[in-house]
Amino acid sequence: MGNNVPVRKLVIGFVATVLALVVAAVGVDFGAAIYAEYRLARTLRTVAALNWDPTAAILGFPFITQARRHQYNEVELRAIGVDHPVVGKASLEATMHHINLTEASWLIRPNAPMHIGKLESRIIIDSTHVGRFMGIDDLLVEAPSRETNDPTGGTTESGISSNQGLVFTGTPRAAGIDKRVSVTVDLSITGEDHSTLVMTATGVLTGAGTADQPVPEDKTAAVLAEFSSTITGQRLPFGIAPTSEGARGSDIIIEGIAEGVTVELSEFRQT
User: Fold this and answer.
1) How many domains is the chain partitioned into structurally?
2) Given strand 229-231, what is the order of strands in its sheet?
3) 108 — phi, psi (to 5°)?
4) What domain of life does the UniProt record list for this protein's source (predicted)?
5) Across the strands, what pairs with 230?
6) What is the average pLDDT across 66-79?
């Protein structure tokens, strides 16, 4: 047993050295990723004229390997509370998959082209700002009840509901109603540049999970008209054309998904 002590010490020392090298390598990789994300966020803030730093995440490990080959697996960008000329405030999101940075450098220069395998682009408007735009200060937007109750389907990969049967709840005072009512609303995109969101109220809802407030027949048309509106200027980050619109939580989201596109960081904010 005594003869094994030097061997055991040697093995322990070797393992400790390897572990220290691994920890150091992971630390260096983590630090490089943080620096790249910080630089990306600062650059995006500048080129998009944002009031504060957006969130930038470069996903995948190890980072340094991705940076050396100028190919990131996935990058997520998110700017919250961006000034919007139509609705006041909106949030912008973009998820990029398989980004070729050969012409952009690993720090992603603002006007250098990025070749992207798949790009998901979103503009998000919360219930508060949708309601203010419509003149319904207490508006709450919810996904269609059939999808809220069914976690297995009915939404896109990013969690957006379908565009039909959303539930809008609020007080339509302009229609002469001083109590909260719930209505179903369908969403669609129109306009030559596909940047106009149309919200069309289709009926009054009562029962569980709603305001459960009936509307007199002679005021139904006015109530539906108050919950219907058109919001222009909904241009998605990087100019991607919308492919779906719906709700996620209490937000309205317009999303566009494109494959095989080339964009520049300076094109993130379109309004």
Assistant:
1) 1
2) 140-142, 166-170, 181-190, 196-205, 229-231
3) 55, 90
4) Bacteria
5) 198
6) 94
252 is a domain residue: yes
Q: Which domain holds residue 113?
A: 29-267
Cβ–Cβ < 8 Å for 183, 203: yes
Residue found under tokens 């319904």: 136
Q: Are 139 and 133 in contact (CB under 8 A)?
A: no
20 within some domain: no
Tally the residues of the chain: 271
Handedness of CA 143, 147, 152, 155 (dihedral sign): negative
Token output for 106? 């690993």
Let me know: does 182 contact 169? Beta carbons within 8 Å: yes
- Model confidence over 11-31: pLDDT tens digits? 665 565 555 545 555 556 687
Distance from C-alpha of 248 to C-alpha of 176, rounded to nearest angstrom: 30
DSSP-based helix, strand, coil % in the chain, nearest 5: 30, 35, 35
- Residue 65 burial (10 A CB sphere; 0-12, 13-18, 19+): exposed
**Inside any domain, residue 24:** no
**Whole-model pTM?**
0.85
